[in-house]
Amino acid sequence: MYGRDPWGGPLEIAADSATDDDRSRNLQDYDRAALSRPLDETQQSWLLGPGEQKKKKYVDLGCIIVSRKIFVWTVGTILAAGLLAGFITLIIKTVPRHHHKPPPPDNYTLALNKALMFFNAQRSGKLPKHNNVSWRGNSCVNDGKSDSSTLFKDLSGGYYDAGDAIKFNFPQAFAMTMLSWSVIEYKGKFEAAGELNHVKDIIKWGTDYFLKTFNHTADTIDRIVSQVGKGDTTGGTENDHYCWMRPEDIDYERPVTECHSCSDLAAEMAASLASASIVFKDNKAYSQKLVHGAKTLFKFSRDQRGRYSNGNEAEMFYNSTGYYDEYVWGAAWLYYATGNNSYLQLATTPGIAKHAGAFWGGPYYGVLNWDNKLAGAQVLLSRLRLFLSPGYPYEEILKTFHNQTSIFMCSFLPYYTSFNRTRGGMIQLNHGNPQPLQYAVNAAFLTTLFSDYMEAADTPGWYCGPRFFSTKVLREFAETQINYILGKNPRKMSYVVGFGNHYPKHVHHRGASIPKNKVKYNCKGGWKWRDTSKPNPNVLVGAMVAGPDKHDGFRDVRSNYNYTEPTLAGNAGLVAALVALSGEKSVGIDKNTIFSAVPPMFPTPPPPPAPWKP
């Protein structure tokens, strides 16, 4: 049978010849085929009624709508992570921990802590509450006022030089410069030892006093104070050497000595203030005050030529042999403090270096001390060449200073015979004369510092003639000298009071030798304490005594100052050497702080031109 196809062709309709069973089997096959493949959502909607369609559940979080299944998984994961973190924290807090204690301080650090205390014991004037020396009190607060001949009426403060109560400004200024230099180079080590604030207080006590000894607000001056107190005993008059009294009980006159031609003293004081200005650079107002004072002093030193000790009693105690070494030293420090090239030009003037003794040797060549600063200046200017290399016109003289530094570093080594040594190993930088330790500590500081300079400049060593030495040789020299002072010597005695178990008990020191028992002993009344064989009732902690003789012999006798008297200059060198050797060897110098005020050595290139625009 044929019908009509609506698309235009015949439509054949087959006759229904299949049985009911055949149709039933065919339907079952269709059902299995349909069930064997999944239905998409559209097909499901055809087969399922409106009430039977699957419903997805959602959670409305306000800002977004998420699937409930995803929400449950997310919240569960966060809670599980929180519980796990809490469990781990609980374990960490409840399980016993083993704290690793830091290593104990080395001997150099322990000695450093004590060496700084000596300066507290030497303070003059009204003492701060935190001075921490129980047997000291306010003293000589009227210095200046009691002398009608001086223009400077407030000279309280500063430091007593040694075992007496005289304030010698020349060695005191050198001591403050050395302390400032050690802080600039090894600030981190002072901080590690817990002594940075302490040493800065010590320096400021000195610089505050120096600002009183001249008109620090002026640009030009015609005088400075060189000394407070008197030590000449020839007349038998009561003074700081004739009398044996506690500084707190002094009732005799303390004259003020002024000088009008004292290039050495003024330049050393300028070095002291200039170096301290770098230490206090974070205190801008105080640092600028120190810089201005240093400039004024240095100008005075150049305008009014002469030796401060010429023709006065300082010649007996702290005689200056010249002032050209202070010119190089002071100018170098002023250059670092200001960045002004005129100071560098002066410090590198060959004529000044020649007069300072830079171009010939001599028995004391390379020996840094309160009188001659040439060796310190040479090291200080070698630093400039090593790290900044300023080039022309300074290179030639800086190279000379650098070579000279290398030469006197060689002279300290045991392989050479420039200086003798005692059998115990102490170098005789003053050629067997008394009070040798102050020279040894300065050399220990310079050698350690120069070694650290070379390491910071990635230089493994230096040549002594044809022979090459590594930087560690210099450090070893410094260690042998400081170890000798701390007790590794034939007498097994520490020459630093209070360090170790065996140290001098009869230190030549008025305040330490007289008991604080509310009894005022007059000028001669204190002589019994000077002459007694009993140990000092007060321990002068940290004082480095003058030291043994050239045979390693030492007499612990109060009356012999050549063995038992400490000094400011000696202890400043000790502090510098100790901090340089203390702590981790890997911690070197502060390479950049000293250059804070120094401008770039070469002019900066101009900025690139602006981009071209049509």
TrEMBL record:
<keyword id="KW-1133">Transmembrane helix</keyword>
<feature type="domain" description="Glycoside hydrolase family 9">
    <location>
        <begin position="108"/>
        <end position="578"/>
    </location>
</feature>
<keyword id="KW-0119">Carbohydrate metabolism</keyword>
<dbReference type="InterPro" id="IPR012341">
    <property type="entry name" value="6hp_glycosidase-like_sf"/>
</dbReference>
<keyword id="KW-0472">Membrane</keyword>
<dbReference type="GO" id="GO:0008810">
    <property type="term" value="F:cellulase activity"/>
</dbReference>
<dbReference type="InterPro" id="IPR001701">
    <property type="entry name" value="Glyco_hydro_9"/>
</dbReference>
<feature type="region of interest" description="Disordered">
    <location>
        <begin position="1"/>
        <end position="26"/>
    </location>
</feature>
<keyword id="KW-0378">Hydrolase</keyword>
<keyword id="KW-0812">Transmembrane</keyword>
<feature type="active site">
    <location>
        <position position="556"/>
    </location>
</feature>
<keyword id="KW-0624">Polysaccharide degradation</keyword>
<keyword id="KW-0326">Glycosidase</keyword>
<dbReference type="InterPro" id="IPR033126">
    <property type="entry name" value="Glyco_hydro_9_Asp/Glu_AS"/>
</dbReference>
<dbReference type="Pfam" id="PF00759">
    <property type="entry name" value="Glyco_hydro_9"/>
</dbReference>
<feature type="active site">
    <location>
        <position position="508"/>
    </location>
</feature>
<dbReference type="GO" id="GO:0030245">
    <property type="term" value="P:cellulose catabolic process"/>
</dbReference>
<comment type="similarity">
    <text>Belongs to the glycosyl hydrolase 9 (cellulase E) family.</text>
</comment>
<feature type="transmembrane region" description="Helical">
    <location>
        <begin position="70"/>
        <end position="92"/>
    </location>
</feature>
<dbReference type="InterPro" id="IPR018221">
    <property type="entry name" value="Glyco_hydro_9_His_AS"/>
</dbReference>
<keyword id="KW-0136">Cellulose degradation</keyword>
<feature type="active site">
    <location>
        <position position="565"/>
    </location>
</feature>
<protein>
    <recommendedName>
        <fullName>Endoglucanase</fullName>
        <ecNumber>3.2.1.4</ecNumber>
    </recommendedName>
</protein>
<dbReference type="InterPro" id="IPR008928">
    <property type="entry name" value="6-hairpin_glycosidase_sf"/>
</dbReference>
